[in-house]
Write a structure and sequence with these properties.
single chain; mainly beta; Tachylectin-2, Chain A; five-stranded antiparallel beta sheet; 20 strands
Amino acid sequence: MKGLSIFLVITLLAMSAFSQMKYPKVPKSTNDATIKGKLVYPYHFKYEGNPLSRMHSAADPSVHVWDDEVWVITSQDRNMDSTKHRFHYAAMDGYHAFSTKDMINWTDHGEIFHSSDLNQIAWGSTPENYMWAPGAARKQDKNGVWTYYLYYPHNAKFGGEKWVTGVATAPTPIGPYTDQGPLKGETMRMDPMTFIDDDGEAYVYSNGMIVAKLKPDMISLAETPRPIVYATDSILKNDLLRFCEGLYMHKRNGIYYLSYSNFKNKEYQSFYAMGKSPYGPFEWKGAMAPAPQGAQDHHSIIEFKGEWYYFYHIALKELPKYKESQGRIVCFDKLYYNEDGTIQMIKHTK
């Protein structure tokens, strides 16, 4: 037994050394996505109208209200290096966090998770360092302790799939996050979005228009992902109206609102449907937001202190830092409902 124990220790050390050689740690590079100068975090600033962050790239907002505070978790565009990156999206490799208690005074917490933090042994193959649109959630255990979860799409040939959803956990919204590897169970793909219902049940939505319930551990699927019925055949066959990416779920007055983006539509990009269950079926209602400036719509919807807000991003390619990159920055505007529960058209402001 002693010999076996020594063998196991040597094997684990060898695996660790091999992992470090194959997947070297790279320095986190928050300031590489800074538009102007260098920032020291936490960085405090006031909202002065859209865009929210004028100092740092911040795209694909995953927005949450936790303990009377708004948290915005975003992906980051970086200056594209043509010697390393095939296209600008390939330069995205980390997540950023912002928070506020009043929608005016904001804190930029800097980078909270980076591709160098990934558990490479758990992934089991050489991944590209893509860190695209994130999802986030939190859950409280029986002792009242909160755990925060980051859900991220990762580009890796894992189990025959190119895109796989991973999950990382932390004791606070800004980390430190420990990567748990791929979400356990059936494969979920890009743009993961997690919705926790009033009864505490959690669901994860993903591109492909699919949804699956999560187990209580929040890192395992409780079922095989289900396809979502969200529109009639005429909508599904219309390239300018059907789902393309960025599923989002929110709930109001017992109604479930499923929304998504169609980046092919140059006039309207955000569409939604209403239903009575997190699974649907849903009744398609149409457009709810115009196409954002220079970018595809990727939104979140929250209620905060009695007001509803619609978060999205725009692209500012005129900024010198981002002439060869996306330069996307978070914006938000008020969201209003009609008496019948339908959503009024969002009005983008600057």
